[in-house]
Amino acid sequence: MLDLKSLYVHIPFCDYKCGCCGFYSIPETAESLHRDYLSALQNELKSFDIDEDSLETIYIGGGSPSILSEENLEHLLGIFTEKFSPIEFTIEMNPRQLTRDKLITAELFGVNRLSIGVQSFSEKSLEVLGRKGSRREILNALDAACDSPIENLNIDLIFGLPNQTLEDLEKDLDIALSFEPGHISAYSLVVEQNTPLGKSVESGRLKLPGQQLDRKMYEHLICRLEEEGLYQYEISNFALPDFECLHNWNCWRSEQYIGLGASAGSFYNGRRFTNPADVRGYIAAERNPKRESAALTEKDYAWQTAVLMLRTNRGVCAAEFSDKTGFDFEVLFSAEIEKNINAGLLEKTVSGCRLTPEGFSVADSVSREFVLD
Ligand code: SF4
């Protein structure tokens, strides 16, 4: 029996492909295909023997889970509520597809956390991202979310967009905060090659703000969100106390998880698995999609654990690290720790060490320094 805390479910359908999108999703609205996909998900779930009592979180992401018809949404949620009673049950919703009826269905089936992919309230920015929809649609969706009984609301934002100014970001934050979300995820734009946005940036038609402005925006949003009581508990995630995302928290503590669905990744029993990014192949494979799999050595796992824990405000807890990996963090990474402490990017804590505020701004490059032979 698999003792794991988190289950991820990938719904790889969208009604169109955004110009910035690097996720595995296909523009496909046919309800019959969605239905077949849900049956395949149900079969894949049956192939795992998961300890019902250990499972803390279910996260349904995509793609756009909210593209499903109400009937299909009920089917999807029923697959999981029939078997599990997680502490945290999240579903992502696209503002253009969110309806009050879908929210009622979600709540009836035990969903207690909504994550709404806003990205920006500025129509200029939405156009740059190649996202359909208007500011009005987003505001209506957030109004509906605030009226629903699901009180735990996350809003996703992106900053560092071509042509975006600090004032534009400030307006996005003002509007987002006016809905009083318990959680905001704010990511600096990652330009994916081979997307329409990537090509526009590559050709020079769109210009990114530059490192200095991007950093200024990041620092600004940290201050602004902290002023409103949403503290930074991970590089890109901010929450009121008790509204942290438990699902992501478990991933950053390097816990085992299973991902169901096309392209979904899993990590359990010391191996990483990835399902093929192919909806029709996934449906045809029934309960045994041909997963790619790679074993992690003990040192690989120690590296993964250090890098994930460093993403969080708590940083690496040496005792937890040693329990999980069998290694002494300070011995295994002594050179990296010393170098980054001297550079002002890491600091010691009572339980281990964590990134400093300067370190958070360059977290990816600090992580790259953590290498093992
Ligand atoms: S809605 Fe999200 S997953 Fe779908 S295409 Fe747009 S960015 Fe990608």
CATH level-1 class of the largest domain: Alpha Beta
Strands, total number: 17
The value of Rg in angstroms is: 21 Å
CATH topology of the largest domain: TIM Barrel
% residues in beta strands: 15-25%
Tally of helical runs: 16
- The CATH superfamily of the largest domain turns out to be Aldolase class I
CATH architecture of the largest domain: Alpha-Beta Barrel
Helix content: 40-55%
Sheet with the most strands, sense and barrel status: 9 strands, mixed
Whole-number count of domains: 2
* Structural class assignment: alpha/beta
Mean pLDDT, nearest integer? 95
Distance between the first and last residues' Cα: 33 Å
Strand order in the sheet with the most strands: 9-10-8-7-6-5-4-1-11
Flag low-confidence runs: none
Query: Based on CA inertia axes, which overall geometry fits?
Result: globular
Small molecules bound: iron/sulfur cluster
Task: Give a written overview of the molecule.
The chain folds into 2 domains: 6-251, TIM Barrel; 298-373, Orthogonal Bundle (Arc Repressor Mutant, subunit A). The longest helix has 17 residues, at 211-227. Strand 9 and strand 10 (237-239) form a beta hairpin. Helix content is 41%, strand content 20%. It is of the alpha/beta class and 373 residues long. The structure holds iron/sulfur cluster. Iron/sulfur cluster (SF4) is lined by residues 14, 17-18, 21, 23, 25, 62-64, 94, 117.
